[in-house]
User: What shape does this take?
Amino acid sequence: MKALADVARLSDELQRSQLAHEQSDKQRKLLETQLKDAEAKLDAVQTESAYSSKMIVDKLEQRVRVSLSSVTRSLILILCV
Assistant: This one.
């Protein structure tokens, strides 16, 4: 009788352990998927950020060129007078 009770108890314990393992495995897979999604979003944001930064730098460089051109013209006018 005791052996049957031990077998039943061990069987229940095994089933609970297997269920817990299955749930942990599902949770791990979900977290891996979420991590991959987050990494993809991060890559997209970094790419967009780099592009935006380049656009800002290009605009600022253009403004500097225009300002230098204006200053140069002003200096030429002052020197010619």
User: Anything to note?
Assistant: The two ends are 118 Å apart (CA to CA). The helical segments are 2-80. The mean pLDDT is 95. DSSP finds one helix and no strands in the chain.
